[in-house]
C-alpha cells in the first residue's frame, strides 16, 4: 500500500481532511481485503490484476450497477441512500463501527463551525466521580483522543499528565512520540492500532476539524508507525478488554478496562481499569495507590 510523500502530508497539516478521498480509500481498502471465496463467488484463474474483489463483483453482491458503485468508490457519495449503503456494508462484511464510518463519509452531517471548535468541557459531577474512584485508574477522553481529566491512580499507572502542556495530553501524541509509552505497553502495536482506529472514526465524523487535521499531519511526518497504520483506513471501537503494562516500579500489570460513553456528550468516554481480585496486579495497584503521584516521579527516575 502506497504512503503519501512526506512533503504532501506536511503540506496538508491543518487543512480539512478530503472527505471524498477518505471515502474512496476506505471503500477500496475494504474491497481489497475480501477474496471471492470469502463471499461465495467463484475465483476463475489465479492471476487477478487487483487484490481482493473486483468492483463488478462487489457491485453484484450489493445489487447495484457497476457504474453506480464506481462513482461511490471514486468519492461521489452525493444522494446515496441508506439502503444502498446498507447493501454495500453487507457485501463488504463491514463491522458496526465500519458501517457507521462509511455512513459518516458518504452522508456527512452539516455541523456548524462553532460546534466543531467548541472547547471540551467535563461536568463537575464527573470530575468528582473520578476522585471518588479510590484505587481505580480512570480518566475521561474526548475528541482527537485528548485526555481531559483523570484521577491520581491514573497518574500513578500511566504518568502524571499534569506535568504536560494541555496540548500534549493526547493519547496519540503519547503513544507515537514518547518512547516511555512504548516501554509501558507490552503490546505497543495493538495500543497504537486502537488509537489510530479511534482517530479514523473521529475523522469520519469531523473531517473539517483543523486541530484533528493538524494532529494527523504532524504524526504522519514524525512517526513512520503512525503513517503505516493510518494508511490502512481501519476503524473500530473497543469498549472493553485487557491491557498488559510493564510499570517501571511494580513490574507487569494485567488490567481489564471498560469504556463508557457519556450521556449527553457521546464524544466523551470514561475509561476505568481494574485487576482481578486477589491477583498480583491487584496487589501492585494497592501499592501504587499508597504512593500516589509519587509513584510517577519515582518511576521516571527509575527509567532515567
Describe the model.
The protein is of the alpha+beta class. Helix content is about 50%, strand content about 10%. The chain has 16 helices and 5 strands. It has a 5-stranded antiparallel beta sheet with strand order 2-1-5-4-3. The radius of gyration is 22 Å and the shape is elongated. The two termini are about 40 Å apart.
State which percent range the strand residues make up.
5-15%
| Helical percentage | 40-55%
Poorly predicted runs of 5 or more residues: 4-11, 112-116, 298-304
Order of the strands making up the biggest sheet: 2-1-5-4-3
Order of helices and strands: HHHHHHHHEEHHHHHHEEEHH
- Give the strand tally: 5
What's the gyration radius in Å? 22 Å
What is shown here, in short?
The chain is elongated and about 65 Å long. Helices cover 50% and strands 12% of the residues.
Question: Topology of this structure?
Answer:
Blueprint: H1 6-12, H2 19-32, H3 55-62, H4 66-73, H5 82-91, H6 96-106, H7 113-117, H8 124-132, E1 138-141, E2 147-150, H9 152-158, H10 171-177, H11 179-184, H12 188-205, H13 210-222, H14 224-230, E3 240-247, E4 251-262, E5 265-274, H15 280-291, H16 294-303
Antiparallel strand pairs: 1-2, 1-5, 3-4, 4-5
Amino acid at each position: 500500500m502506497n504512503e503519501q510523500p512526506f512533503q504532501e502530508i506536511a503540506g496538508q497539516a491543518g487543512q480539512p481532511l478530503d472527505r471524498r478521498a477518505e471515502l474512496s480509500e476506505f471503500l477500496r481498502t475494504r474491497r481489497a481485503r475480501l477474496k471471492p471465496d470469502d463471499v461465495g463467488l467463484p475465483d476463475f484463474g489465479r492471476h487477478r490484476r487487483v487484490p481482493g474483489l473486483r468492483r463488478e463483483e462487489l457491485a453484484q453482491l450489493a445489487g447495484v450497477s457497476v457504474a453506480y458503485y464506481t462513482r461511490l468508490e471514486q468519492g461521489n457519495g452525493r444522494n446515496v441512500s441508506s439502503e444502498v449503503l446498507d447493501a454495500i456494508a453487507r457485501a463488504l462484511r463491514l463491522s458496526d463501527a465500519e458501517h457507521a464510518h462509511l455512513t459518516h463519509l458518504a452522508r456527512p452531517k452539516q455541523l456548524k463551525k462553532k460546534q466543531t471548535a467548541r472547547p471540551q468541557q467535563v461536568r463537575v459531577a464527573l470530575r468528582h466521580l473520578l476522585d471518588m474512584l479510590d484505587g481505580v485508574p480512570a480518566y475521561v477522553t474526548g475528541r482527537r483522543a485528548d485526555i481531559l481529566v483523570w484521577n491520581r491512580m491514573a497518574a500513578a499507572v500511566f504518568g502524571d499528565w499534569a506535568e504536560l502542556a494541555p496540548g500534549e495530553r493526547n493519547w496519540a501524541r503519547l503513544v507515537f512520540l514518547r518512547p516511555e509509552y512504548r516501554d509501558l505497553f507490552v503490546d505497543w502495536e495493538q495500543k497504537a492500532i486502537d488509537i489510530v482506529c479511534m482517530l479514523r472514526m473521529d475523522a469520519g465524523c469531523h473531517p473539517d476539524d483543523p486541530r484533528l487535521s493538524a494532529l494527523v499531519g504532524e504524526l504522519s511526518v514524525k512517526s513512520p508507525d503512525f503513517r503505516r497504520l493510518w494508511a490502512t483506513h481501519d476503524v473500530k471501537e473497543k469498549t472493553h478488554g485487557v491491557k498488559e503494562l510493564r510499570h517501571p516500579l511494580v513490574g507487569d500489570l494485567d488490567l481489564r478496562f471498560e469504556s463508557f460513553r457519556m450521556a449527553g456528550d457521546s464524544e466523551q468516554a470514561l475509561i476505568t481499569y481494574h485487576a482481578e481480585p486477589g491477583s498480583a496486579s491487584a496487589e501492585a495497584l494497592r501499592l501504587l495507590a499508597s504512593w500516589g503521584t509519587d509513584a510517577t516521579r519515582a518511576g521516571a527516575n527509575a527509567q532515567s
